[in-house]
Amino acid sequence: MSDTVFKIKAAPGGKASSIPLMGNDGEPTIFEYAKPGRKSYNLLDQKLPTGELNDLLPASYLRVNKLELTEVSERDLVGHFTRLTHRQYSVDLGAYPLGSCTMKYNPKFCDELAFMSSFNTCHPSAPEAVVQGWLELMVNLEEALCEITGMKAATLQPAAGAQGELTGLLLMRAWHDDRSHNKTTIIIPDTAHGTNPASVTLGGYKVKTVGTNEKGLVDIESLKSLLDDEVAGIMLTNPNTLGLFEEEIQEVASLIHSVDGLLYYDGANLNAILGKVRPGDMGFDIVHLNLHKTFATPHGGGGPGAGPVAVSERIIDFLPGPKPTRLGTNSYGYTTPIKSIGRIHSWHGNALVLLRAFGYILFHGSEGLEKISEMAVLNANWLKRRLEDTITPAYNRPVMHEVVMTAQDLAKDHNLKALDIAKALLDEGFHAPTIYFPLLVHEALMFEPTETESLDTLEALARSVEKIIAQSKTNIDDIKSAPRNTPVQRVDEALAARKLLATYDAAINK
Amino acid sequence: MPSFVPHTQQEIKSMLEFLGLEDIDELYDHIPVALKLTQSLAITALSSEFDVIDQFTEIGNRNTKDLICFAGYGAYDRLIPAVTKQLASRSEFVTAYTPYQPEVAQGVLQAIFEYQTFVTRLYGMDIANASLYDGASALVEAVNIATSVKGNKSVFVSEGVFHNYRQVLGTFVKGTQTNIIIKTDKELEDFDAFDTSNTVAAVVVQSPNRYGNLVDLDKVKQLCDRLGCLYIVAMDPIAASVLKTPGEAGADIAIGEGQVLGMPLSFGGPYLGLFALKQDLVRKLPGRLVGQTVDTSGKKAYVTTLRSREQDIRREKASSNVCTNQTLMAVTAAIQLSWLGSKGITEVAANSSKAAHYLRSILKSEGFEFYGDDLFLFEFSVKLKQKVDDVLQRMVDEGFLAGVKVLNEIDGQEYLVVATTEKRTASQIDAFVKALVKADN
């Protein structure tokens, strides 16, 4: 089938970006390179009078045990961390179709923005007059995010999506308290990200779970049965974590509003709808965005992110402060909304992440943003169609930016589990898709190709999946022992938890 | 139209054909028409990355440049070597996701493992997590652990903890219904006089505190023992290289702001929430933790572990909702600490301290008075005659960011908190004093 579909001249990523990464042996820790007397550091000559710390402070305040970090040469230091980078997959190396994570290409010019000293040398406590550029940038970003989401104002303080969620729930709580509503529960779908229910608990609410219907959407009947006066609101991702658009969102909104509830939008999947449809127009009151997903700020191996929260008119007075604000035509300062829930971040949020995202938005403009979503959705639908004869889609409907497949039959018939496919894909030079999520799909594999992967890459990825599945029917043992061409093979996670070694010191004393 | 989309028009056409579609808009056919945007977003594209950079240069020029920084208060102007900047910019670290597939994420996992080791050694604790967002979020998580472990919803927090951290705590306890009771360091140190009839989940102190003064951590420990509560100590990691560590003082949880470990000031973020605790609390640890294990061939390997604590598995029963953290900052810190080594970091602390003592001695000879005693490391509080905001503005005109205005919530007085680092030279300090004498006249 594949050749009739598409001929690959060159597939970026895939086998060419594979493995083996440099080096077969493990890299020693930085502590094992230490030798007394070696050093890398050199410090500025401050031309200060000489003196000892011991003369300045009483011994009872000083360290009892001498500090030991490490002692290495700069050359060994550079070698060590460079070798570590050779044991690490990344977007720059190849395709990363990790569903729900939007691992798109991170443009290099945005790195350069973050290195600009006119921004990155500013102290966060500096008087307003000194940081007019930063404040202007933050206000402009807030306005752009509001335009994209259809909301009225936003806080940029939350450092990640989960912190944005909790901020949103505290906004909900403050709004209800202000109206003397007695609310106790938040509804979330059974397809929700784990951060949603965790945030609900930390926000002081209880979780009620709404089911998913046979179309993969919120079950309206189930929702109706959960509604009562104690419902504070609902948290939804749209498109949802199955990659499907909640077509009945307007009805969901009117049902929730009928009990004085608010709608919270988890922005994890915003990449599907830029310039097409907006959470504000769907009836949402509170929206968090993941700038590290939709707006291509690099994920840094697990962070930093940024999780701004945008709100509708009626929530504005509750937003966190201090908030960068336009005071006049070319004048900026901080204001705190009158009923503010308070501060969320030590300072003003992950400022350099915000800065990169703003550069990305300015570069693209409205047309470019729309194109991003169109191509993300096209890629996901193409991949679904391309693979659906090989592996079953969890829901056979048009998807948005990602597609969930199920290996349930393959597991039953050939003992080929989602985990096995994921691990075998690593040998093929691709990052694995997200597996075993959402929880209601058995043996789930969630592919999110993003808009920055080419048709050639998608084809190569599809062929790799086909190859793995074909091979499983004749030689499942081979697949079960994958990956082999990686710096390490399948790791013993149970041992790590049973015999916890979370520092080098624990490991050498085991 | 600028874009990072690789598709050619021909490819788009063939992909649509493959899907049996004629037009790209058909991909959105199932979305209710009433919801669809009828006009473009009001965001104008700049035509190239060069235009974006030009525009950012223009905006950046509206920040006042080249101020000599004497401001601290949890964010310090420290030396960052080329090695840290360059290694931490390597795209394998920068453009990776969370290490969910350990076989292809050993680089990040091992770097975090080394980071965790560094943090435990700095703080004298057993276990450190893979990072939190910032110092404030570390405080919030620490308090959440205490209330959960002790089943008590009240906490004593020192007024000496950075006020912005306490504000963040104040925000989040509205959800957890925790009662924050403010005490002064003096009250918490005077354990004999302290009324211990009300039990609390924890006592939180910061040393050096927000005025720059050292707290007698041993005395506060005695109070915690009498109260039978957890002991949470916030400490700057550079300070922890020379001061009695949280661990040595008997803390159960140590927290801090890791920005000083190789991150530029960058207007407050991304920074690094340091979080470490005693072994017996490990099951309550928020966020990710990396552990050493072996692969199927018996080779040493690293993996995120004790995963059952985390939100994606425990969902509404999780004690923390942290998912994305500040991993790149943790890797940066591991590189910076490797570069500094034990000797380097203590020299940084000592040099910063020498500069502060030098500054204070000349300020004193010029007649300035201070808040707090002589027990300080690299930061202290100056009493001014004029309003602090006015002095800060006048000092900007002289080329200095003179410090941070701090309002003491007990006496209602405001102070200028000044900090020196290993970057401040004698001649800068001399010029600073001269300018401050004039500005506070």
* Sequence of strands across the biggest β-sheet of chain B: 2-8-7-6-5-3-4
* Approximate helicity band of chain B: 25-40%
Runs of chain B in which pLDDT lies below 50 for 5 or more consecutive residues are: none
**CATH topology category name of the domain at 151-364 in chain A:** Aspartate Aminotransferase, domain 2
| Rg over CA atoms of chain A | 26 Å
Continuous helix count of chain A: 19
Helix content of chain A: 25-40%
Could you name the key traits of this structure?
heterodimer, A: 510 residues, alpha/beta, four-stranded antiparallel sheet, 13 strands, B: 441 residues, Aspartate Aminotransferase, domain 1, Aspartate Aminotransferase, domain 2
Question: Could you explain the architecture of this structure?
Answer:
The complex is a heterodimer of chains A (510) and B (441). Chain A has 510 residues and is α/β, with parallel strands linked by helices. Chain A has a domain at 151-364: 3-Layer(aba) Sandwich (Aspartate Aminotransferase, domain 2), CATH 3.40.640.10. Chain A is built from 19 helices and 13 strands. Chain A has helices at 2-5, 53-56, 74-85, 108-114, 117-120, 132-149, 161-178, 195-202, 220-226, 249-258, 279-282, 291-294, 351-387, 408-414, 418-427, 455-474, 476-480, 493-498, 504-508, and strands at residues 153-155, 185-189, 206-210, 231-237, 262-267, 286-289, 309-311, 323-328, 331-335, 392-393, 403-406, 434-435, 444-447. In chain A, strand 12 (434-435) and strand 13 (444-447) form a beta hairpin. Chain B has 3 domains: 9-60, no CATH class; 68-79 and 342-439, Aspartate Aminotransferase, domain 1 (Alpha-Beta Complex); 82-335, Type I PLP-dependent aspartate aminotransferase-like (Major domain) (Aspartate Aminotransferase, domain 2), CATH 3.40.640. Chain B is 38% helix and 15% strand. Chain B has 14 helices and 15 strands. In chain B, strand 5, helix 9 (217-227) and strand 6 (230-234) form a beta-alpha-beta unit. The termini of chain B are far apart. The chains are: A alpha/beta (510), B alpha/beta (441).
